[in-house]
């Protein structure tokens, strides 16, 4: 037993696999909050104060208390296991910053499309983006306080999602809830990759 413990201490450290996950969705849906809730490092944020100049193009309906907005990205990191680390990149939500998405999505394993049932149409662009590029994604329905709750299948129908796209209810403020969504992304991406390999083998 002592020998076994000594042998384990002598093992080289495991080199973790690092995976890139995007967190996307409309303006004010909770992307920055989600990355911050789960990141084990102090998240990198590129937020600017909302100004009067942006009022005509930044629809704050439903998120009237929002005072800042992401202009480039949010970045965080979470270790799911000793051999698996996720790098999280939150995309900017406003249309004028969408040019950033192509760079951020380079090399991504998959994505979370965060949805707010009060402004469900705001996540259509993100859903279309990942569908067109065949990037695996799950929809995380952010359950805000005071917002109406709908079954996952109702959200799927409203967004016209394919049957294999997971729809998960979450709370972007809660670490464990967000971890469940991120695990869902990884599992979904791995399942799709396995299906593609089987299709190529036949």
Short description:
The protein is of the alpha/beta class. 33% of the residues lie in helices and 26% in strands. Helix 4 (124-132) links the parallel strand 5 (110-115) and strand 6.
Uncertain stretches of 5 or more adjacent residues: 1-5, 50-58
Largest sheet: 7 strands, mixed
Total strand segments: 7
Terminal-residue CA separation: 48 Å
Class inferred from helices and paired strands = alpha/beta
Strands of the biggest beta sheet: in what spatial order?
2-3-4-1-5-6-7
- Our Rg estimate from Cα atoms comes to 19 Å
The number of helical runs is 6
What string, H for helix and E for strand, traces the elements in order? HEHEEEHEHEHEH
**Shape, per Cα inertia axes:** globular
**Proportion in β-strands:** 25-35%
Report on this structure.
With 202 residues, this protein is of the alpha/beta class. The protein has 6 helices and 7 strands, in the order H-E-H-E-E-E-H-E-H-E-H-E-H. Helices cover 33% and strands 26% of the residues. Helix 5 links the parallel strand 6 and strand 7. It is globular.
């Amino acid at each position: 037993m002592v020998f076994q413990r000594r042998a384990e201490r002598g093992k080289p450290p495991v080199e973790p696999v690092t995976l890139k996950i995007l967190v996307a969705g409309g303006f004010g849906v909770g992307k920055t909050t989600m990355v911050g809730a789960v990141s084990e490092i102090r998240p990198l944020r590129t937020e600017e104060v909302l100004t009067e100049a942006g009022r005509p193009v930044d629809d704050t309906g439903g998120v009237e208390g929002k005072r800042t907005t992401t202009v480039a990205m949010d970045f965080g990191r979470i270790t799911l296991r000793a051999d698996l680390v996720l790098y999280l990149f939150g995309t900017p939500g406003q249309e004028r910053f969408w040019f950033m998405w192509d760079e951020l999505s380079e090399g991504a394993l998959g994505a979370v499309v965060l949805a707010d049932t009060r402004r469900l149409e705001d996540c259509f662009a993100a859903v279309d983006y990942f569908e067109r590029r065949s990037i695996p994604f799950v929809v995380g329905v952010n359950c805000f306080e005071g917002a109406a709750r709908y079954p996952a299948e109702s959200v799927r129908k409203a967004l016209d999602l394919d049957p294999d796209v997971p729809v998960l209810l979450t709370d972007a403020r809660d670490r464990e809830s967000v971890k469940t969504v991120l695990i869902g992304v990884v599992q979904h991406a791995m399942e799709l990759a396995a299906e593609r390999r089987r299709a190529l083998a036949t």
